[in-house]
Amino acid sequence: MKLSVLGFAVACLLVAGSASASEELAKTNNCMVCHKMADKAMGPSMQLIAETNAGGDVAALAAFIKSGGKSANAETYKAAMPMPPQAKVTDADAKALAEWIMSLAK
Ligand code: HEC
């Protein structure tokens, strides 16, 4: 009995951990300095980006994350500036971030 309670607790931790793994990745890559989850900040909200890119190309979004610049969706976002290049983000992180952002679309 004690063991199964412990097992359940560990399972919960694992689920909670994986659910926020990419938000953590966004924080460690400084994305959240300019992006918020639901509200506009310096950059568009992650939610708006997800909905605008729904069904789009993950690889293209990952490439934009590294290169920055003026987005093809700038008309929608109405940000005051282009996104500065995020050259320090690894290819693997850029792909994981793009997949995570896409997954936020409702
Ligand atoms: C210095 C501020 C800043 C930082 C840091 C930043 N962004 Fe951005 N981001 C922006 C702005 C501003 C835009 C809107 C650009 C536009 O509309 O032309 C944007 C747009 C985007 C888009 C939309 C691209 C599209 O075509 O729809 C994605 C995705 C994105 N950012 C992801 C990230 C990720 C992931 C990180 C972290 C690795 C990050 N950003 C870091 C400011 C920032």
SSE layout and pairing:
Layout: H1 2-19, H2 21-28, H3 46-52, H4 58-67, H5 74-77, H6 91-103
Helix pairs in contact: 2-6, 4-6
Bound molecules: heme C.
InterPro entries: Cyt_c-like_dom, Cyt_c-like_dom_sf, Cyt_c_ID
Protein name: Cytochrome c
Signal peptide: 1-21
Please describe what this structure looks like:
- The protein is mainly alpha-helical.
- The chain has one domain: Orthogonal Bundle (Cytochrome Bc1 Complex, Chain D, domain 2), CATH 1.10.760.10.
- It has six helices and no strands.
- It has helices at residues 2-19, 21-28, 46-52, 58-67, 74-77, 91-103.
- It is globular and about 55 Å long.
- It starts with a helix and ends with a helix.
- The mean pLDDT is 89.
- The structure holds heme C.
- Heme C is lined by residues 26, 29-31, 33-35, 42-44, 49, 52-53, 61, 64-65, 70-74, 77, 79, 81-84, 86, 89, 97, 101.
- Pfam families: Cytochrom_C (PF00034).
- It comes from Candidatus Electrothrix aarhusensis.
- Residues 1-21 form the signal peptide.
CATH fold label: Cytochrome Bc1 Complex, Chain D, domain 2
The number of E-state strands comes to: 0
The general outline is globular
Biggest beta-sheet profile:
none
Number of contiguous helices: 6
Rg, rounded, reads 16 Å
InterPro entries: Cyt_c-like_dom, Cyt_c-like_dom_sf, Cyt_c_ID
Domain Cytochrome c: 17-105
Keywords: Electron transport, Heme, Iron, Metal-binding, Signal, Transport
Binding site for heme c: 31, 35, 83
